[in-house]
């Protein structure tokens, strides 16, 4: 079949020539590009080779590796006066025994490779990806901040290079690592590394480490022991199993996991090793101020890396005061020995300068070399429960609660209930705290509650401030260990673990006007030639960030807490006037004791020095019935007296924003005339004490010779005034049970039955001086010949300049000894108010009577259950010939509040001489009843 074929167009000679020219140009360009690329590559490679040659020319020869291994310059640590505390000695003083690879436990080899360099046997001495990452971050940060070193590189920097941290050094390190890998086989490199690496506590090399920590040869190490040792070289002091056993154990777990991931061991073997108990050999070298020195070495490792301790020849000048350190060690040792019969074996002490953060003394245990008490464990750094020593910060949180109006912030004069209470505690069961002595003090001020260390008010304070606010405050004070998600209200009593050093630093911030400076231990570091590398107070501090003071709380709030903690009279009811918390100078102090007597503390300060003391047992076993004031207190007292010998006694200087107020001693308010004892205390100017109307001490009008309240119907010659400390209704029963006499709630003297046609104008309930809240029924009489209407009004204060519009009425029907109306006080401010009953006659003449009361709708702050709401069904006002007595009133809150003057006796009585209404308030009946007034 014939098929149609597409017709191909014929090319012209011109088109063919153009196509050929285009192809020629492409190939010419491509060829030139290839040549250029090859030239660039050659130049780059040549440049790298030249750079390599230039840099390598100045590098030590890899052949020197074995000769230079073990050579280093000691780092020396001094106290602030230049006395030598410790030196990272050469191998003749430290411990080092070189062993061949075959004499090292295979567990050590596997654990080391899995932890430090999992690809050790496969790379050419460097890990290119890790190296590029390290160089990138070095250019970004201006310093080498990322890792990436292989085992070979670590060997190079420990043996052949200086410990500087620069990009150039990192490149040199990589070049030498590649050269060493070319000249030595992998087993030789690993053998050199394991004999060179520092394991802490003067143990250089794996065999020395095995002997130091476990008293055996490297060949005999178990999997559990090998995993622990393999985790130390990164930060030997930080993971030191003597001083930080928990950190060392956690690090061991990481190494075991890495070994499982690398395929060296099974998960079951890892679990068995994790569960294997480890027993450490006692340390056999002497240190001056051992726990402080080891703490400084740990910080040096974090700043410079562990190799700097024995390569760079640094001279480290610390903040330690040798006299105070010696006294601290002596006092802790002697006082702990005196408590041996109370099962006390250990103690710790931290002393700091508040204005600089300098640690001038640090004792981590009663005896560093005593294995029986775990003396190597630094109890100044070990998190322990502080007990009541954190209560100042709980109350501090209530002084400045976020998103709360000023009037809701607590003050030293705020009343809080020291009465057994079941507190709702989130997801936890209700929390019912008890006081240390098992007693209750009733309604007390914050000053008394903190000074006498009452537990129940502290829990109420934390409930008021809320846990998130308190935890944020503690974080700003430098506390790093309160990280659990399940804390409850028991945290107010010190249920969270805090290191003594951090707690002492938090108190230092209080002494420093609320300004926190993190602990400083290093003043200056010089190299072997004396060149200053860093110095505190300069642009290159040795501990970056510690000089940046942070204003954690206002100077006003810090001073108020200090004023309470230094108030010897306030703490006297529990601690006595001459307790160990009292010095020969102004001093603020607080004790702490934990449940079962496992820990006790005393922390306190003067303007010059803050000292924290812990007493207990490192194994967490309980002491025998010994509190913070009896255990840690004597150590604190003796050390503070010795430390301040010859120094001036300085007062705590009040900052701007505080002033002294006269208050009623036990209620914290401005004193009423009924207050039996007055004090002068410091308050914030913008948070003064409550007015005298809120004083619990009140003069109450009583029927003479009885326990009955007087009212309008009590004859004047039968009235007498008595002084009561009147508790709110929710605590009235507690007060009565504890022998605090309370006045009756309502009067029982009934009004006389009126004669027909007689004018009656009075309020019988609430009574004069009563306390009211919520919805209040008003009882009394409003009746007269020619009656037109009556209404109820109120005015603010007991001498109001004006009254409200009628809140009840006007009503056109008279009431005789019945319910006049309802007063809803829920929207009113708390404080004194005046009720006015206004009656109008048909001729337009107005008459009035008044009753002065106190409105108090404040919900109780000391109990988590809401105040009961009383529902009242008001009867319709009617004319009732048979009048009910005021005792039929359903409202139960006629508790009178205080006044600064005796209750007046000129309250109008129900006679035929009522008081006409006037523009100016008055309580005296002025017009005389006449027929003309009735029209």
Spans of at least 5 consecutive residues with low confidence? 1-14, 141-147, 861-935
Ends distance:
140 Å
Number of strands: 31
Structure classification: alpha+beta
Kindly state the percentage of residues in helix: 25-40%
CATH topology of the largest domain: Beta-lactamase
Report on this model:
In the N-terminal section; belongs to the glycosyltransferase 51 family. In the C-terminal section; belongs to the transpeptidase family. Keywords: Carboxypeptidase, Cell membrane, Cell shape, Cell wall biogenesis/degradation, Glycosyltransferase, Hydrolase, Membrane, Multifunctional enzyme, Peptidoglycan synthesis, Protease, Transferase, Transmembrane, Transmembrane helix. This is Putative penicillin-binding protein. The chain contains 23 helices and 31 strands. With 935 residues, the protein is of the alpha+beta class. Helix 5 crosses helix 6 and helix 15 crosses helix 17. The N terminus and C terminus are likely disordered. The chain is elongated and about 125 Å long. The protein has 4 domains: 251 residues, Biosynthetic peptidoglycan transglycosylase-like (Penicillin binding protein transpeptidase fold, Orthogonal Bundle); 261 residues, DD-peptidase/beta-lactamase superfamily (Beta-lactamase); 37 residues, no CATH class; 175 residues, Immunoglobulin-like, CATH 2.60.40.
Q: Can you give keywords for this protein?
A:
disordered N terminus; penicillin binding; Penicillin binding protein transpeptidase fold; peptidoglycan glycosyltransferase activity; Beta-lactamase; 30% helix; 935 residues; carboxypeptidase; 6-stranded mixed beta sheet; 31 strands
């Amino acid at each position: 079949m014939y098929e149609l074929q597409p017709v191909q167009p014929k090319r012209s000679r011109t088109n063919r020539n153009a196509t050929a020219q285009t192809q020629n140009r492409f190939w010419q360009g491509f060829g030139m590009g290839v040549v250029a690329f090859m030239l660039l590559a050659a130049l780059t490679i040549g440049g790298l080779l030249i750079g390599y040659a230039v840099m390598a020319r100045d590098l030590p020869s890899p052949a020197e590796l074995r000769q230079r291994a073990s050579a280093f310059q000691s780092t020396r640590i001094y106290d602030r006066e230049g006395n030598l505390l410790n030196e990272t000695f050469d191998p003749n003083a430290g411990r080092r025994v070189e062993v061949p690879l075959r004499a090292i436990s295979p567990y050590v080899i596997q654990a080391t490779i899995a932890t430090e360099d999992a690809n050790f046997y496969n790379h050419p001495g460097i890990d290119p990806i890790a190296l590029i990452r390290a160089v990138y971050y070095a250019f970004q940060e201006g310093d080498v901040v990322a890792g990436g070193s292989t085992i070979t590189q670590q060997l190079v920097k420990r043996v052949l290079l200086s410990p500087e941290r620069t990009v150039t050094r990192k490149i040199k390190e990589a070049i030498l690592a590649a050269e060493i890998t070319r000249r030595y086989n992998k087993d030789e490199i690993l053998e050199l590394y394991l004999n060179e690496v520092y394991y802490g506590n003067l143990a250089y090399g794996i065999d020395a480490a095995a002997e130091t920590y476990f008293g055996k040869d490297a060949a005999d190490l178990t999997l559990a022991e090998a995993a622990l040792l393999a985790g130390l070289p990164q930060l030997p002091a930080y993971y030191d199993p003597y001083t930080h056993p928990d950190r060392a154990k956690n690090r061991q777990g990481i190494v075991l996991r890495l070994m499982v991931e690398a395929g060296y061991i099974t998960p079951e073997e890892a679990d068995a090793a994790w569960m294997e108990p480890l027993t450490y050999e006692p340390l056999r070298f002497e240190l001056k101020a051992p726990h402080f020195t080891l703490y400084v070495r740990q910080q040096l490792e974090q700043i410079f890396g562990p190799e700097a301790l024995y390569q760079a020849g640094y001279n480290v000048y610390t903040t330690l005061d040798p006299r105070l350190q010696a006294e601290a060690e002596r006092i802790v040792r002697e006082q702990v020995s005196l408590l041996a019969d109370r099962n006390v074996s250990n103690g710790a002490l931290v002393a700091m300068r508040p204005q600089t953060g300098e640690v001038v003394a640090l004792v981590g245990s009663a005896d560093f070399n005593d294995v029986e008490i775990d003396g190597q464990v630094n109890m100044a750094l070990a998190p322990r429960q502080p007990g009541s020593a954190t209560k100042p910060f709980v109350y501090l949180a209530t002084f400045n609660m976020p998103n709360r109006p000023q009037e809701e912030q607590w003050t030293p004069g705020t009343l809080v209930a020291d009465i057994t209470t079941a507190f709702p505690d989130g997801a936890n069961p209700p929390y019912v705290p008890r006081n240390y002595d098992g007693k209750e003090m009733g309604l007390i001020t914050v000053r008394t509650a903190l000074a006498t260390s009452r537990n129940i008010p502290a829990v109420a304070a934390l409930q008021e401030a809320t846990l998130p606010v308190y935890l944020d405050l503690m974080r700003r004070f430098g506390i790093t260990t309160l990280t659990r998600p399940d804390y409850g209200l028991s945290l107010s009593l010190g249920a969270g673990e805090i290191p003594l050093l951090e707690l002492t630093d938090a108190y230092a911030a209080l002494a420093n006007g609320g300004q926190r400076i993190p602990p400083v231990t290093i003043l200056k570091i010089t190299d072997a030639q004396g060149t200053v590398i860093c110095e505190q107070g300069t642009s290159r501090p040795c501990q970056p960030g510690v000089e940046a003071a942070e204003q954690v709380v206002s100077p006003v709030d810090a001073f108020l807490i200090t004023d309470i903690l230094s108030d010897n009279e306030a703490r006297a009811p529990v601690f006595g006037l001459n307790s160990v918390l009292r010095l020969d100078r102004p001093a603020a102090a607080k004790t702490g004791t934990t449940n079962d007597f496992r820990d006790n503390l005393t922390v306190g300060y003067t303007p010059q020095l803050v000292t924290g003391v812990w007493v207990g047992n490192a194994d967490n076993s309980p002491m025998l019935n010994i509190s913070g004031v009896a255990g840690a207190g004597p150590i604190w007292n003796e050390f503070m007296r010795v430390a301040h010998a010859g120094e001036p006694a300085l007062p705590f200087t009040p900052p701007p924003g505080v002033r002294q107020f006269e208050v009623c001693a036990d209620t914290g308010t401005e004193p009423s005339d009924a207050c039996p004892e007055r004090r002068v205390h410091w308050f914030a100017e913008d948070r003064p004490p409550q007015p005298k109307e809120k004083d619990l001490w009140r003069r109450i009008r009583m029927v003479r010779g009885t326990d009955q309240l007087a009212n309008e119907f009590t004859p004047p010659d039968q009235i007498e005034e008595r002084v009561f400390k009147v508790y709110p209704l929710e605590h009235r029963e507690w007060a009565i049970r504890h022998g605090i006499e309370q006045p009756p709630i309502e009067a029982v003297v009934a009004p006389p039955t009126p004669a027909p046609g007689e004018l009656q104008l009075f309020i019988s309930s609430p009574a004069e001086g009563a306390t009211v809240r919520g919805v209040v029924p008003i009882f009394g009489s409003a009746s007269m010949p020619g009656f037109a209407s009556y209404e109820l009004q109120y005015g603010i204060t007991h001498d109001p300049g004006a009254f409200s519009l009628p809140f009840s009425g006007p009503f056109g029907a008279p009431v005789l000894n019945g319910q006049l109306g309802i007063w809803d006080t829920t929207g009113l401010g708390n404080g004194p108010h005046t009720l006015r009953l206004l009656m109008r006659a048909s001729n337009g003449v107005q008459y009035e009577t008044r009753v002065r009361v106190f409105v108090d709708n404040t919900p109780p702050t000391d109990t988590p259950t809401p105040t009961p709401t009383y529902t009242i069904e008001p009867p319709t006002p009617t004319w009732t010939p048979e009048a009910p007595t005021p005792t039929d009133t359903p409202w139960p809150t006629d508790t009178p509040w205080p006044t600064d003057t005796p209750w007046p006796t000129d309250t109008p009585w129900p006679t035929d001489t009522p008081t006409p209404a006037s523009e100016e308030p008055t309580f005296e009946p002025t017009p005389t009843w006449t027929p003309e007034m009735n029209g």
